[in-house]
């Protein structure tokens, strides 16, 4: 972590400029807020009572928009996951003011000083959020996990649930969790390896508020608690995707692998970073050996993420098996409806399929329209995230013009090279004619432009 010294408030001003540039909404219109207020009063009807299940949540300590609560119990040699997901569709109706605004936004946008939510806070952080302050309507998925790590969706129902505890990634203890939590994650991870999956989870390059207007820029590896928690979502999303694909409906998360050209660049990058990558070992096998805490490994993981063709959404098409290369399976998003628009419709389809009912026509129509909406939202969110990081890097390096920095080239595009500084959590681009991925370079910082959030480097003499 590197503290950012910002005595003149450039970061705060820059964040305001980013909000203006990308037209990030500061809130919701009175019409949407009024509709959300009314929706929050809607009493559950037809929900089963599952308040006897001791659900818990696990999230960042500051989070209040809690999508998921869970409980795990043994069943012979299997583990059964009860996964409660916020029942957003209970509160939001097709075509109402809240729904229309959500279609404009697509997903929640996160910024260091706050967020632009997909839904108004009275829903996303109160009535629909699975907070431990009272019963909440939810959709409970029942996922059976075998000893081989294979998962199957056994049920999906609307239910009233009560979370017993709001647990946090950074201080949760093993004794706080259901007894099967670690074993469930281990089985899911083993199954991933067996089918040749390799989800790349590089450390996140992020800006962290420290209080009093101060921030820090860091590369943050995922905690063990985060990785284990992610296994619950992964298993549920795989099970839901399989059920929908079998039923001939759904919206799926799809991604192709790196091209041959990208693979060649990755091998050069690995060599430059000092990674041992034998010719007879494929990329996925190498990825499973990487350590987020190793700076060279982290740089390579970032390069792998950029080398892929990017993930997207695709509706069910007869005769086509939707595929997510990193997961090495058919995969869907169904576990974060407070933050992603698409999940609300996937959940509705799963409820219908598991009840033996036809999927509503409006859900099938949404599956056809959502890929374009989600692609636009994800692209905008990615641009905003990059702009925030660029701003933090510029503020951090302001005043250090003329200094030399060791770096590694992780990718090239003509004479433009993407570089990763060796001793700072800074990833950028500079012109280095003839550069090759993996090349070690010494750079001089020539300029810092806070207005454009741009760092200018050149090869040091």
UniProtKB/TrEMBL annotation:
Gene Ontology biological process: mRNA catabolic process
Domain of life assignment: Bacteria
GO CC aspect terms: cytosol
Residues annotated as domain RNB: 47-356
GO molecular function, one term: RNA nuclease activity
Protein name according to UniProt: Ribonuclease II
């Amino acid at each position: 972590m590197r503290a950012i010294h910002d005595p003149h408030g450039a970061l705060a001003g820059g964040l305001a400029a980013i909000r203006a540039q990308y037209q990030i909404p500061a809130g919701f219109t009175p019409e949407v807020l009024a509709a959300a207020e009314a929706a929050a009063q809607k009493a559950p009807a037809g929900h089963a009572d599952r308040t006897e299940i001791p659900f818990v949540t696990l999230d960042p300590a500051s989070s209040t928009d809690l999508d998921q609560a869970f409980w795990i119990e043994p069943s012979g040699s299997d583990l059964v996951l009860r996964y409660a997901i916020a029942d957003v569709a209970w509160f939001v109706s097709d075509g109402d003011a809240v729904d229309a605004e959500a279609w404009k936004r697509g997903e929640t946008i996160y910024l260091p000083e706050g967020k632009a939510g997909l839904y108004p806070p009275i829903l996303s952080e109160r009535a629909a959020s699975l907070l431990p302050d009272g019963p909440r309507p939810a959709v409970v998925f029942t996922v059976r996990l075998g000893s081989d790590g294979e998962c199957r969706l056994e049920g999906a129902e609307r239910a009233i649930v009560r979370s017993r505890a709001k647990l946090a990634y950074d201080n949760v203890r093993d004794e706080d969790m259901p007894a099967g939590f670690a074993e469930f994650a281990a089985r899911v991870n083993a199954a991933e390896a067996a089918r040749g999956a390799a989800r790349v989870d590089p450390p996140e390059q992020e800006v962290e508020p420290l209080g009093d207007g101060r921030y820090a820029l860091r590369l943050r590896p995922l905690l063990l608690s985060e990785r284990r928690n992610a296994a619950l979502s992964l298993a549920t999303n795989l099970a839901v995707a399989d059920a929908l694909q079998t039923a001939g409906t759904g919206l799926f998360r799809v991604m192709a692998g790196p091209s041959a050209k990208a693979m060649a660049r990755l091998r050069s990058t690995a060599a430059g970073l000092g990674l041992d990558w034998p010719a007879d070992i494929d990329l996925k096998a190498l990825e499973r050996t990487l350590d987020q805490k190793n700076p060279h490994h982290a740089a390579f993981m970032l390069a792998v993420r950029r080398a892929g063709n990017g993930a997207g959404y695709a509706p069910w098409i007869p005769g086509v098996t939707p595929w997510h290369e990193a997961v090495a399976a058919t995969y869907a998003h169904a576990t974060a409806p407070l933050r992603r628009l698409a999940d609300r419709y996937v959940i509705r389809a799963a409820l219908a399929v598991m009840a033996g009912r036809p999927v509503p026509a409006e859900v099938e129509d949404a599956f056809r329209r959502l890929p374009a909406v989600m692609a636009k939202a994800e692209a905008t969110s990615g641009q905003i995230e990059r702009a925030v990081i660029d701003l933090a890097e510029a503020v951090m390096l302001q005043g250090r013009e003329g200094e030399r920095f060791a770096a590694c080239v992780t990718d090239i595009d003509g004479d433009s090279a993407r570089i990763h500084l060796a001793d700072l959590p800074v990833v950028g681009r500079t012109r280095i004619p003839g550069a090759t991925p993996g090349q070690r370079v010494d750079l001089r910082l020539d300029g810092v432009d806070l207005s454009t959030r741009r760092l200018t480097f050149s090869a040091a003499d």
